[in-house]
Amino acid sequence: MAGCQPAPQPPAFLATDISGAAFARDFRLTDHNGQVRTLADFKGQVVAVFFGYTHCPDVCPTTLSDFAAALELLGPEAGRVQVIFVTVDPERDTPDLLKQFVPAFNPRFLGMFTDAETLKLLAREYKVVYQKTSVKAADDYLIDHSAGTFVYDPRGRLRLLMPYGSSPDAIAQDL
Questions:
Q1: Is 63 helix (H, G, I), strand (E, B) or coil?
Q2: In what helix (H) or strand (E) does residue 61 lie, and over which residues does it extend?
Q3: Element holding 124 (H helix, E strand)
């Protein structure tokens, strides 16, 4: 009789399913509390990794706000999700600034950083692009950057690329 059962359906995601992709396999970054972290540190949790910067006028605060609202929708299940914000602006985004900015959206969110050279390698591994633009002074510029969020399942497998502008409802459903 077991052979007569319909095959289980894969989950229906709203984001792009990139399961099995051979990139964005891991990271080694320092969080805003000074602790070195890798993806393995979050085993058992759904992990959402977003690259951005604290001086971003639109994409970054919107994405963090949308994830915070999605976690509210998840209720108690939100404790099984870790949101990670990786700065692409190590010149200005100090650990203290990350510690103020990122948890302001949700106290559980972590801001992560590394040096400029390691960031280049990490961006290549994640197929993320970033570039200074509108440079007015050494500390007055914008950064164009990729805006998708990488989502890992509780076993640390890359599953989704969530596009910028996903609604809190869509994020919550996929998480």
A1: helix
A2: helix 59-74
A3: helix 116-126
For 120-129, what is each residue's pLDDT tens digit? Answer: 999 999 999 9
The H or E element containing residue 100 is: helix 95-101
Global pTM reads: 0.92
**Interior angle at CA 135, CA 130 and CA 141, nearest 5:** 65
Q: Judging by DSSP bridges, how do beta strands 46-52 and 149-152 pair with one another? A: antiparallel
- Residue at 51: amino acid letter: F
Radius of gyration of the chain (CA): 17
Chain segment 136-170, per-residue pLDDT in tens:
998 899 999 999 999 999 999 999 999 999 999 99
28, amino acid identity: R
62 within 8 A of 69, measured Cβ to Cβ: no
- Asked whether the beta carbons of 55 and 88 are under 8 A apart, the reply is no
CA distance 72 to 66: 10
